[in-house]
Amino acid sequence: MKAARAAWRRLEPVHAMIYFVPEGRRRYADLGLSGRAGYFASRSAAFGRASADLVISTFYNFNPAFVRKAVDGAWDAVTPQQVLDARHAAAGEALRRAGIHELPALDEVLALTRRAAEAACEHAQGRPLFAAHAALPWPEEPVLQLWHAQTLLREFRGDGHVACLLSEGVGGLEALVLHAATGEVPADFLKGSRAWPEEEWAAAAERLRTRGLLDGDSLSPEGIRLRQHIEDRTDRLALTAYAALGDADCERLAELASPFGRTVVDAGLLKIG
Questions:
Q1: Which end of the chain is more exposed for a tag (fewer CB within 10 A), N or C?
Q2: Which one-letter DSSP state was computed for residue 137?
Q3: Contact yes or no for 1/235 (Cβ under 8 A)
Q4: CA neighbor of 236 nearest in space, from 166, 150, 175, 163
Q5: CB 3 within 8 A of CB 251
Q6: CA-closest candidate to residue 219, choices 164, 182, 266, 261
Q7: Which of 243, 255, 230, 232 is nearest to 7 (CA)?
């Protein structure tokens, strides 16, 4: 399980950069999708003309009012396929700008990551956001194949994580408050990026204190235990994909993935703004 988590985390920047790079914002804007409409439309386009309710349900931790404002009308002048094409073009352009295509281990990393992603496709039940992306055709270019494979593994893990949160009675906003309480990500960033008003954030924090999960603004011992329990369960649910590699190949992927993640970070592809 440790190697599988390491493989995912180290390669995750290859996928995650699509939410930050100017190539994406520019291509979405060219289609008439401004602000966060580009994010919501591009990530949900695999569903087809996804409604705001579907996005609220599957994205889980965004303020529903914010999602409705961004999504309503998004499909009036653009098709899901146009948005998907723009997303793929932006991903390829950004990753080539970073030099991912020049890394010597690309073929091996792609082969291992694709094997894991294709194994995940055999277990799509109960994972709606993953299943929608799994139904998309594989790109032809190796760099985009790697991006698509890691996208599938990210959504596979993400759907499992939402299932774990639901089973523990932790809503989307509560999950953000608990995340902020770890000190790993500033609360102001999470409030702003997910558009939660201060009063709703404060109310969620009070609910978590009542449950004994927060001590002030920090995690209580029970909160620490619950967070770790959810992360461990999420890891176990994601193992279905990486088990297809076997221990040796999973460890090999974890080893080879580091330069790919570092290349994306060093190129500034995860910078906000």
A1: C
A2: P
A3: yes
A4: 163
A5: yes
A6: 182
A7: 255
